[in-house]
């Protein structure tokens, strides 16, 4: 049997472009739970107020930006929302227009080469962002460079997003003699709090702390939940992309069934839910 495992590799912006439309519903609001946990760290250590200048780095569909503005701080702080995928930028721009976010600037930008000047931000947030960059050290050093002395950094990563376990189980079941491991973009050096703290300390941050939190993927039914995870897997796994259509569909059917079985009915009866585990890490410059 092939040794199955996970590898980090470069996800091109086109992958996130394709994912943009499905991303928000795909993890069923878990991303908002994670940002709220990050913001509660900020509240304890360096609260956001009207004079804050915030970077939402690898913003996706404006996840941290929305949560910050939902806090109702008056007047709202300045926020710079950046992402390298045009699809995510388009969604963020549409929210800016629809919700009249006058203090938000939206820019397409690679987090590994920020075009901001040194020491611009009071708060620098990258939720489920910088850990996915091909060169996350460069990403963190750019966050350090653009943060004011004493400024606050908050990042998050996955401890266990659940679908990789199902992907590997399906691979082992259907291809017991495979010579190659299944390739999945799961960055191993961000999967426990000690590593996450080390990553920030090595980038020069101090007062670094990290905790595992749980967050909930809430879906209308388990089929919708599984189909979103199947969509992600099709986009991010080179192993899946390399198969012919018949093999891919056979695998996807088996994988989807495993994912469906992970969901359970939600307590309030509104649908189904799946608990995911993330790590939130914060520090100061
Ligand atoms: C998992 S999503 C997270 C989105 C959002 N921050 C959230 O909290 O849900 C990862 C995001 O990182 C962006 N991203 C990945 N690599 C990037 C890079 N090198 N520079 C800028 N954005 C990047 C992707 O386009 C995508 O929007």
From TrEMBL:
Gene3D superfamilies: Vaccinia Virus protein VP39 (3.40.50.150). SUPFAM superfamilies: S-adenosyl-L-methionine-dependent methyltransferases. Coiled coil: none annotated. One of its GO terms (molecular function) is methyltransferase activity. Pfam families: Methyltransf_25. It comes from the Eukaryota. Residues 56-151 form the Methyltransferase domain. This is Methyltransferase domain-containing protein. It comes from Arthrobotrys flagrans.
């Amino acid at each position: 049997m092939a040794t199955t495992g996970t590898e980090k590799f470069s996800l091109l912006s086109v992958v996130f472009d394709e994912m943009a439309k499905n991303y928000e519903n795909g993890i069923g609001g878990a991303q908002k739970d994670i940002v709220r946990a990050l913001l509660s760290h900020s509240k304890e250590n360096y609260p956001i107020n009207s004079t804050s200048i915030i970077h939402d780095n690898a913003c996706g569909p404006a996840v941290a930006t929305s949560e910050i503005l939902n806090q109702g701080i008056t007047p709202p702080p300045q926020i710079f929302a950046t992402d390298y995928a045009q699809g995510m930028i388009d969604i963020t721009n549409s929210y800016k227009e629809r919700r009249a976010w006058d203090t938000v600037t939206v820019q397409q930008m690679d987090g590994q080469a920020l075009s901001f000047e040194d020491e611009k931000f009071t708060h620098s947030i990258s939720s489920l962002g910088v850990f996915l960059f091909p060169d996350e050290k460069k990403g963190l050093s750019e966050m350090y460079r653009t943060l004011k002395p004493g400024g606050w950094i908050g990042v998050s990563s996955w401890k266990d997003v659940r679908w990789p376990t199902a992907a590997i189980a399906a691979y082992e079941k259907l291809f017991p003699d495979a010579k190659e491991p299944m390739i999945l973009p799961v960055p191993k050096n961000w999967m426990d709090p000690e590593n996450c703290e080390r990553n920030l300390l090595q980038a020069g941050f101090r007062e670094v702390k990290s905790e595992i939190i749980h967050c909930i993927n809430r879906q209308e039914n388990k089929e919708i939940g599984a189909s979103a995870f199947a969509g992600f897997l099709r986009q991010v796994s080179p192993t899946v992309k390399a198969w012919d259509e018949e093999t891919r569909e056979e695998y996807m059917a088996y994988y989807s069934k495993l994912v469906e079985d992970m969901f359970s009915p939600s307590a309030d009866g509104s649908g189904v839910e799946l608990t995911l585990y993330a790590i939130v890490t914060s520090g100061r410059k």
